[in-house]
């Protein structure tokens, strides 16, 4: 008997696991979206796992100009873009740059988390 291969992990599931690895990070589901918070503040929106792809929203005080040069990134709506929030959108079959998104999640955590928690990284 052979073990069946495990199904591939979705990019959103991988990014969620990464975000939850930060001190005091926890998952919440306001507005039907998956978000990760530190204390009561959101530091990453992971949207919904959809057939149409995925989107990731992070606060990028340092990397926003670089991110906005990418074709799949735009300032986040609802006025969040003015505060440095960027949304990256990927369609089904798109190459999702997980390493880059992990770095952006870290930057977002550092921007939102209390300094005492950031110091623990």
From TrEMBL:
Q: Does the keyword DNA-binding apply?
A: yes
What InterPro entries does the database record attribute to this sequence? YjbR-like_sf, YjbR/MT2646/Rv2570-like
Q: Report whether DNA-binding shows up as a keyword of the record.
A: yes
**What are the GO MF terms of this UniProt record?**
DNA binding
Q: Which Gene3D superfamilies match?
A: 3.90.1150.30
Keyword terms of this UniProt record: DNA-binding
From what superkingdom does this record's organism come? Bacteria
* Protein name as catalogued: Putative DNA-binding protein (MmcQ/YjbR family)
Record the organism.
Nitrospirillum amazonense
């Amino acid at each position: 008997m052979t073990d069946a291969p495990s199904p591939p992990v979705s990019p959103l599931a991988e990014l969620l696991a990464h975000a939850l690895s930060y001190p005091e990070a926890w998952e919440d589901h306001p507005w039907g979206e998956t978000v990760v918070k530190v204390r009561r503040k959101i530091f990453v929106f992971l949207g919904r796992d959809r057939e149409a792809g995925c989107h990731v929203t992070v606060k990028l005080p340092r990397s926003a100009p670089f991110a906005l040069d990418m074709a799949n990134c735009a300032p986040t709506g609802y006025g969040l873009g003015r505060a440095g929030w960027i949304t990256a959108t990927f369609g089904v079959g798109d190459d999702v740059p997980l390493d880059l998104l992990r770095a952006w999640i870290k930057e977002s955590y550092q921007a939102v988390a209390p300094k005492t928690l950031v110091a623990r990284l």
